[in-house]
């Protein structure tokens, strides 16, 4: 049965890329369910592309990807990818997480609003709820994106470099939040350049030039990074 599988993903000889050009080459890897996995590697090694495969936004050219999580993944893109002047409040941005369940044109229910409120609180954003995104610090914006992902209540959360550009205090907050999410049984996968963050993960994949160079416990993998 699917939900007894201890792997969230089983990837076998995956080759993938863009417009006929391969970025990932013959990757075989397992991503554990209900744990935190860090994807590390130099710039351009294919971390975001692999996240795209897990999110379903990039398609395999060959090989296979088997996913045992059942819900639409919550994907936290790099916060620098969010337009700075988006005319939206923190509360509205977090409530958008419920669109995965309602669609953007349907009214949110009382339950949706309560879930969004709880996620704001969980990420320490209640006092900032009425602030526009373009008035936030990088750390506050990243917490907002994470709260939006939490509001989706997915069993799979994917994050592209959530700590990049943040100070030590904000990085620690994001790290604590990911540990909390994972403790509730959610599978968390993050691409990261932050070796301290990767060390905290349960599992680690090291990419180099689109190939999987090492996989396993961060202590064993990161010495090769
Ligand atoms: N949408 C795209 N179309 C075409 N090529 C792309 C696209 N996205 C990424 N690439 C290319 O794929 C390769 C791997 O990029 P990817 O973003 O997956 O690496 P990364 O390890 O996440 O890099 P970084 O650490 O710089 O974010 C790069 O050569 C990049 O130029």
From TrEMBL:
Domain of life per record: Bacteria
InterPro entries listed in its UniProt record: AAA+_ATPase, ABC_transporter-like_ATP-bd, AztA-like, Metal_Ion_Import_ABC, P-loop_NTPase
Keyword Metal-binding: no
SUPFAM superfamilies xref list: P-loop containing nucleoside triphosphate hydrolases
Gene3D superfamilies: P-loop containing nucleotide triphosphate hydrolases
PANTHER family from the UniProt entry: IRON TRANSPORT SYSTEM ATP-BINDING PROTEIN HI_0361-RELATED, METAL TRANSPORT SYSTEM ATP-BINDING PROTEIN TM_0124-RELATED
Family: Belongs to the ABC transporter superfamily.
Entry protein name: Zinc/manganese transport system ATP-binding protein
Highest classification ranks of the organism: Bacteria, Bacillati, Actinomycetota, Actinomycetes, Mycobacteriales
């Amino acid at each position: 049965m699917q939900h007894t599988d201890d792997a969230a993903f089983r990837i076998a000889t995956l080759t993938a890329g863009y417009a006929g050009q391969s970025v990932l080459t013959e990757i075989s890897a397992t991503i554990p369910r209900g744990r935190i996995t860090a994807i590390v590697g130099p710039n351009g090694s294919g971390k975001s592309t692999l996240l795209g495969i897990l999110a379903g936004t990039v398609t395999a050219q060959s090989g296979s990807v088997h996913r045992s999580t059942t819900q639409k993944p919550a994907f936290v893109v790099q916060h620098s990818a969010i337009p700075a002047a988006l005319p939206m409040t923190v509360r509205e941005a977090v409530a958008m997480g419920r669109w995965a369940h309602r669609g953007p044109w349907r009214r949110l229910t009382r339950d949706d609003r309560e879930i969004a409120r709880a996620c704001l609180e969980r990420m320490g954003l209640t006092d900032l709820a009425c602030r526009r995104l373009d008035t936030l610090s990088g750390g506050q914006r990243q917490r907002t994106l994470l709260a939006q992902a939490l509001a989706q209540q997915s069993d799979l959360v994917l994050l592209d470099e959530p700590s990049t550009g943040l100070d030590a205090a904000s990085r620690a907050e994001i790290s604590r939040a990911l540990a909390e999410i994972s403790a509730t049984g959610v599978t968390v996968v993050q691409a990261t350049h932050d070796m301290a963050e990767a060390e905290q993960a349960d599992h680690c994949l090291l990419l180099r030039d689109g190939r999987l160079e090492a996989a396993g416990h961060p202590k064993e993998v990161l010495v090769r990074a």
